[in-house]
């Protein structure tokens, strides 16, 4: 009996040591606890808003219940669209400062009824500077039209320019093309006709000058000088 009484404390303490070592192993494998992050929580009516810090979903539930003074149990959803936050893995994907709504028993999420009320998104896009932004808008003003294209370009968010290209119906488009072709041919014909008339006048004028020169030959006397130069004085004496 004495031996049995001595073995009993050892048998009772053995499971405690095993459980303690198992919990310590789990803590070592899990690594350090994540730091608390800030969140914004509100009640179902959005009349009360609080900021809380929590490193995990369980702690966030506890902090929200305490800050909003709600009876347990409560559930958390995203304030922007009502997405339920139920798992720890989804909670870790939330950004800092995410707006959440705490719902009690029998309560449900509803969009805001107040005009002008806007909920900031949970994922804020990074700040950027747009150098150039080009947009294309294809539309129709009439069912028979081929379509119209509007191109708009904005530089540095300040300077903008746009161009509207309108394409009418196929029949009207062909008609306009034929009209422009006819106008081009007429203009070309006028230019060629004027040029040919001017060249013809030049040729006629040249031929008339040649005929006049042939009809009236230059007399021989006009070719000779009117008076001969005087001989030098010394040569006359000789």
Structure, explained:
The chain is of the alpha+beta class. Among the domains are: 68 residues, Ubiquitin-like (UB roll) (Roll), CATH 3.10.20.10; 36 residues, no CATH class; 37 residues. It is 42% helix and 21% strand. The chain is built from six helices and eight strands. It has a five-stranded mixed sheet with strand order 2-1-5-3-4. Strands 6-7-8 form a three-stranded antiparallel sheet, with no helix packed on it. β7 and β8 form a beta hairpin. The chain is rod-shaped and about 130 Å long. 6% of the residues are buried. The N terminus is likely disordered.
Comma- or semicolon-separated keywords:
three-stranded antiparallel β-sheet, alpha+beta, rod-shaped, 238 residues, five-stranded mixed β-sheet
Mind telling me the C-alpha Rg?
Answer: 52 Å
Tally of helical runs: 6
Q: Which CATH class of the domain at 37-104 is shown?
A: Alpha Beta
Strand share of the residues? 15-25%
What percent of residues adopt helix (DSSP H or I)?
Answer: 40-55%
Order of helices and strands: HEEHEEHEEEEHHH
Structural class: alpha+beta
Query: What would the average pLDDT be, to the nearest integer?
Result: 75
Could you say what the CATH topology of the domain at 37-104 is called? Ubiquitin-like (UB roll)
Question: Could you describe the largest sheet, including whether it forms a barrel?
Answer: 5 strands, mixed
Stretches where pLDDT is under 50 for at least 5 consecutive residues are 1-7
Beta strand count: 8
Keywords: Apoptosis
Protein name: CIDEC protein
InterPro entries: CIDE-N_dom
Pfam family, one: CIDE-N
């Amino acid at each position: 009996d004495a031996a049995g009484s001595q073995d009993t404390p050892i048998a009772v303490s053995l499971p405690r040591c095993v459980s303690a070592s198992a919990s310590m192993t789990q803590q070592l494998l899990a690594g350090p606890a994540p730091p608390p992050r800030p969140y914004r929580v509100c009640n179902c009516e959005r009349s009360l808003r609080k900021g809380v810090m929590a490193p995990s979903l369980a702690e966030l539930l506890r902090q929200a219940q305490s800050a909003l003074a709600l009876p347990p149990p409560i559930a958390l959803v995203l304030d922007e669209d009502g997405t339920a936050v139920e798992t720890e893995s989804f909670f870790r994907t939330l950004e800092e400062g995410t707006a959440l709504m705490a719902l009690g028993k029998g309560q449900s999420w509803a969009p805001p009824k107040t005009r002008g009320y806007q909920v900031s998104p949970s994922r804020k896009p990074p700040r950027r500077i747009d150098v150039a932004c080009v947009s294309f808008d294809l539309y129709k003003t009439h069912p028979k039209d081929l379509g119209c294209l509007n191109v708009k370009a904005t530089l540095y968010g300040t300077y903008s320019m746009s161009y509207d290209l309108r394409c009418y119906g196929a029949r009207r488009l062909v008609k306009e093309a034929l009209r422009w072709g006819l106008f081009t041919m007429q203009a070309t014909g006028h230019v060629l006709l004027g040029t040919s008339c001017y060249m013809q006048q030049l040729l006629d004028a040249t031929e008339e000058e040649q005929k006049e020169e042939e009809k009236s030959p230059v007399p021989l006397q006009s070719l000779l000088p009117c008076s001969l130069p005087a001989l030098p004085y010394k040569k006359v004496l000789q």
